[in-house]
Amino acid sequence: MDLALALGGLIVGIVVGLTGMGGGALMTPMLVLFFGVQPLAAVSSDLVASAFMKPIGGFVHLRSGTVNMGLVKLLMLGSVPSAFAGVLIIKALGDSETVQHRVEIALGAALLVAAGSLALKAYLNMAARSRRRRSGLPAEASAEGQPEVMLRPVPTVLVGVLGGIIVGMTSVGSGSLIIIALLALYPRLNANQLVGTDLVQAVPLVASAALGHLLFGDFHLDVTFSLLLGAVPGVYLGARYSSIAPGGFVRRALSLVLVASGLKLLGVDTIVLGYLLLAGCVVAPLVWAGLRRRHGLPALARLEAGRAPAAAPPVEPDSEPAPRP
Q1: Which of 309, 311, 251, 314 minimizes the C-alpha distance to 131?
Q2: SS3 breakdown of the chain: % helix, strand, coil, rounded to 5?
Q3: Are the beta carbons of 122 and 251 closer than 8 angstroms?
Q4: Residue ranges per structural domain of the chain
Q5: H or E element in which residue 255 lies
Q6: What's the CA gap between 164 and 174, in Å, rounded?
Q7: What averages of pLDDT result for each successive group of 10 residues across the chain (325 residues)?
Q8: 7 Cβ contact partners less than 8 Å away, ≥ 6 residues apart
Q9: Got the DSSP string for 290-302?
């Protein structure tokens, strides 16, 4: 057993449970860059480990009611067969690093776009809430309920097909790529439901890809066992907190993982990435606080609940009481 690998699995497991993504986008680069595992072996080991991690987080979200099962079924129709096919494709291409590199570049750019879209959505929601308060109306709820969405079968199945192929080839995308597509197709999904739906749909997807890699990949039992020792409790803890966390917190965690994964896939050096994320964690809250104040809201969101909207003028009572029957 490798304790360092187990610790890495714990960290990635928490991220997966909390945000529904980051398994392949973080686990595979971690194995290759920090532990010297060969790329194909890293992909195989990551997928087999994810096949055990995803059901734990998915079960927690199912119990919490943060899963849209209609979306899960449509995604499965495309993703399960295509994930297995992705393993066969990468096997037929041989050791084509160029193919995988191009997929990772495209995915990295998409992750950064998704992070920007999350930030824009949060800003628009905050601006709308400010307008309602200035109008004397109560602020809208912060999307804690589970909104109804109209299913779009054809594009949803196609998303499953594309996501399955990429996951089978690279182990990346069961959370990151499909979360991006769900954001685009179903903007009314709130953050917790987005995470829960993604985690549950990833269970059969990753299981199919893992089976393909067990048969045709480069699976290493010792690497996977060490990862699972940390990842299993990590994903449980992350999912437990995600299912009860405020939507705003989950959204910020999603954005951070999207940026970290996207920059890593684009080849940003690990040390540079660390400095960029540290700077972002310092600067972003200051910018957000300034935007909130510009819209007439307190700089800190936790103070907003204590600030009641302007009260409507009191209604004058009738000059004479109504006669009793």
Answers
A1: 309
A2: 75, 0, 25
A3: yes
A4: 3-143+155-269
A5: helix 247-265
A6: 7
A7: 87 76 72 80 85 80 85 94 89 66 70 75 76 67 59 93 87 74 81 80 91 84 90 84 66 76 80 86 87 82 56 46 50
A8: 230
A9: HHHHHTTS-SSGG
